[in-house]
Amino acid sequence: MFSLPIDRCLFRYETANRRQRQSNHRRLRWFTIGSMSASGQQPGMFPSEQPTAREPRSLVPWIVSGVLILAIVAAIIIFTRQPAPASPGGADLAPAAPYAAQLSIGNLQMSQAGSMVGGQNTYLDGQITNHGDKTVTSITVQVGFWGFTKQLVGKPTMPLALVRTREPYVDTQPVSAAPILPGQTRAFRLIFDSVPQDWNQNYPEIRIIQVAAE
């Protein structure tokens, strides 16, 4: 019977054993890669990074900006709003302006008519003449309504408005739009949204308290 040397048999055994270990290592490696692919991960040396959630933006800058805008708008409204005409004179009528002595008022007529908002307006029409040597560009009057007990029950202050045209309706304009020249007589109209309830129904007193002339 033919027999191999012992050393050659050991060499063949070690070689076969080494090949078996290499085969088992390849199977284990492919099994690991296949498991990673099935779980949704890409094979490779380093695992892929998961995207991080974006942090929500803060609303504080928007709130501060809105508050600043509202403050600016409020400041513009306050500083650009025209103040209501003052009513000087205390409990009595204010003193007449120096140039008022050169201006005369006459031909007064009063009327009433319903307003578009459902109320009733009172109109005081008249004429004013400039007897001085200056051109009048602005007039402020104070209208005194007297009561039945001869007490002052109302004294609205307003700029004098000149009649620009009467047809098809009465239209007025400020004195500055059409100044009153020396020796000139102009028609005017004063409009009252309301009058004192205890007014004695006589013509009110018109006092010129401010005049701009040049």
Strand content: 25-35%
Spell the H/E element sequence: HHEEEEEEEEE
Per the CATH scheme, the topology name of the largest domain is Immunoglobulin-like
Largest sheet: 5 strands, antiparallel
Mean pLDDT: 79
Tally of helical segments: 2
User: How many domains make up the coordinates?
Assistant: 2
Instruction: Give the % helix.
Output: 25-40%
Radius of gyration: 50 Å
End-to-end separation: 151 Å
- Which structural category do the helix and sheet elements fall into? alpha+beta
The counted number of beta strands is 9
Contiguous runs where pLDDT drops below 50 for at least 5 residues = 37-46, 80-84
CATH architecture of the largest domain: Sandwich
Strands of the widest sheet, in order across it, are 1-2-8-6-7
CATH class wording of the largest domain: Mainly Beta
Oligomer: single chain
Shape label: elongated
Describe this structure in words.
This protein has 214 residues and is of the alpha+beta class. The chain has two domains: 1-41; 98-213, Sandwich (Immunoglobulin-like), CATH 2.60.40. Helix content is 25%, strand content 31%. It has helices at 6-38, 60-80; strands spanning 103-114, 120-130, 136-146, 152-154, 157-159, 161-165, 171-174, 185-192, 205-213. A five-stranded antiparallel β-sheet has the order 1-2-8-6-7, with no helix packed on it. Strands 3, 4, 5 and 9 form a four-stranded antiparallel β-sheet that branches. The chain is elongated, with a radius of gyration of 50 Å.
